[in-house]
Amino acid sequence: MAQIFKPSANSITQVGLLSVAIGVPTLWLGIAGLSRSPANTKVQVPKNQPVPFSHQHHTWELGIDCRYCHTSVEKSSYAGLPATETCMSCHSQIWTNSPLLEPIRQSYETGTPIQWNLVNKVPDFVHFNHSIHVARGINCNTCHGPVNEMHITYKGNSFQMAWCLQCHRAPERYLYKDSSPSGKGLTPRQQVFNVYWKLQEFGTQAKYGEDQKPLPNQLTDEERQLIRGDYAGAEPWETDKIAAGKKLVSEYGVKVQQLADCSVCHY
Asked: Which residues pair with 43 in a beta bridge?
């Protein structure tokens, strides 16, 4: 019987099979990597706004409480965005002629709300409730990154489901109690915002008295990580922190068995 394929067909077949074996996983990994990259998630990509609002200037340098602008963060699923009147409560007196604030003045004069560009937005099929998380002591920076350091606000985390489930499956890693004297008697909700007052007073660097002992009421180690935006919760080998977290889970009434149910976020 005559030979149908040339000897080179063996080499071509081997190269083809090898290309498929390498190419398909490489393509899959590339797509997966792209879906998690800032090009898709927009993490750490500053978003332009009608007015170049600086959280660092207003919250850290001036010490304005988060709740002054985000008025419903403690009682609603939606944190809220500041009305023009909120901005004008200060800027009718200071920086009254700044060109950067012209959109604010125009909004106030015409009664047309400022169209802020949302930085953090979950899909329509996802429900997120700010008030529940604040009531359990989850700090703003845990999810939003180092907001106190942002000149132009950017997305601090991806908010992809796998990221959320890290906490929902092991909330004891992310709950903590302020161990400084100023944290005594605070509710979890009060502790969330007390962090920023401590930052105002003491800054981020550890301070020591004449006796070389740490000054009371300054930021704890967990809070310093929160302020930097890199708090990843207690590690599995930090057994004392995990045990303390489990105690808080029970104290706060966190229903761990339900946290990973689909219906908690999707309905």
From this structure: 155
Q: Provide the residue-wise pLDDT of the chain in tens; the chain has 267 residues.
A: 566 767 766 777 777 777 777 777 777 777 766 777 777 788 889 999 999 999 999 998 899 999 999 999 999 999 999 999 999 999 999 999 999 999 999 999 999 999 999 999 888 999 999 999 999 999 999 999 999 999 999 999 989 898 999 999 999 999 988 888 888 889 999 999 999 998 888 888 887 777 777 777 888 888 898 998 888 888 888 999 999 999 999 999 999 989 989 999 997
Spatial separation of the C-alpha atoms in residues 219 and 26, rounded to whole Å: 45
| Cα 29 from Cα 83, distance rounded (Å) | 44
Q: Which residue type, as a one-letter code, is found at position 68? A: Y
Residue at 101 is within a domain: no
Please state, as a whole number, how many other Cβ atoms lie within 10 Å of the Cβ of residue 32. Answer: 10
The residue whose two tokens read 């007052």 is 197
Angle at which helix 84-91 crosses helix 102-110, to 10 degrees, equals 120
Q: Quick check: is 238 in a domain?
A: yes
DSSP secondary structure string for all residues of 170-181: -GGGT-----SG
Is 44 part of a structural domain of the chain?
no
Domain that residue 150 falls in:
55-81+116-265
- Total domain count for the chain? 1
